[in-house]
Structures are given as C-alpha cells and as structure tokens.
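Thread: quick sanity check before group meeting

JM: Hey all, I'm pulling together slides for Thursday and realized we never actually wrote out the predicted structure for the chain we discussed last week. Dropping the sequence here so it's in one place. If anyone has concerns about the input, flag it before I start.
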Amino acid sequence: MSVKKINAEDLRRMKDKEGLILQGCGGELQDWVDGINDMLIKSDILFDGTKFKAENCLAFENEGLTNLLFPFSEDVKLNMGKLAMWRLQTHENFGGKWLSDYVNNKLGGFLSEETAERKKPYCKLIGEDGNIFNLMGIASRTLRQNGMAEQAVEMRDRICASGSYGEALCIIGDYVNITGDADLDECEDESMEFGGM
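JM (edit): ok, ran it. Output follows.
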C-alpha cells in the first residue's frame, strides 16, 4: 500500500484528529515514511515495534510544497514528549507542525460540522470565461444566493492567497459543485423530483 494523496482542504475536516505534518517532502513518499520511521525508532520515540504505515499517511500540496501527515492512532506507540522535542530540533529541516497548528495557521481553521456537511450549491462554470476572477465572481454570487455569504468571503480570501490557477479552481470546487448547462438542467430536474430538496 502507498501513501494516499488528498487535498489540503481535506485537513480542515479532521477536527478530532492529531498528527505530525512534515513540509517539503520531495521525491518518493515511501522513502520519506521509511526514513522518518527509522529516525523516530532510533530516537526512542516510536516503541514496541510500532511505526507509521504508508497507507495511513497522507500527502498533500500546499504553498508549492509536498507535505506529509503522519496521523496519530492507537496502533502507533509514541513518546510524545520526545516527539515534541524532536519536532523542534528538526524544524529547520522538515518544517514539522502539529496538524491542529497547521490547519489553524495555514488553512483558516477547522470546518464546523455544520459547514463540513452543508450541501454545496450547483454553479455553472463550465463554458464560462476562464479568468479566475470571473469564475470566483460567479461562484461567490451563487453562494450568496444560497445564503452562504460567509463562505463566499472565505472562498475569496483563500483564492487570493492561493499559489496557482489550479489550486484556485480546487478551492472553488470546495464550495460549489461545478457544472455546465446540461449538468445544471439535470440537477434542476432532480431537485423538482424530490420536492426541491
């Protein structure tokens, strides 16, 4: 099994989890997992023969860096005091942060359960002028029309802080379901069938 890749935005839905994030993990992700496990075992941080499994680790891109999340779980036995010291001592090399610190300081905080579960409105962007500010304006209008003005502001702020066109599009997709004319007609038909729900 290999390291699973996720969007940075997915971390905002991990409110009840904690872990160690290492930043700037270029190259083979499996090599990173193996190397960090070896370092933590030699430093007596991992014990009882446990280690982080690659299939439980998560990779994501943010601010132009590939980052790795080593999630804490019951099957990984850690000396947390030594891990905290190791994180500080190696910060210059790995940019280590706790998941909660990273989400709060770099991603705008965790999503509330209500926000995480809120249904995204459909928004016709396919076939529109691809200028990111145009797309952002259409998505913002759709959010406001659906009573989600706060999300429109949050989306705009995140897009303005993003590092690329692709990242900005992904952020729009976090807030609205991107559709074209045909898709939108189908969505409206479905909502009519289910009493507008």
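AS: nice. Residues 29-42 form the longest helix (14 residues). DSSP finds nine helices and seven strands in the chain.
JM: adding both to the slides.
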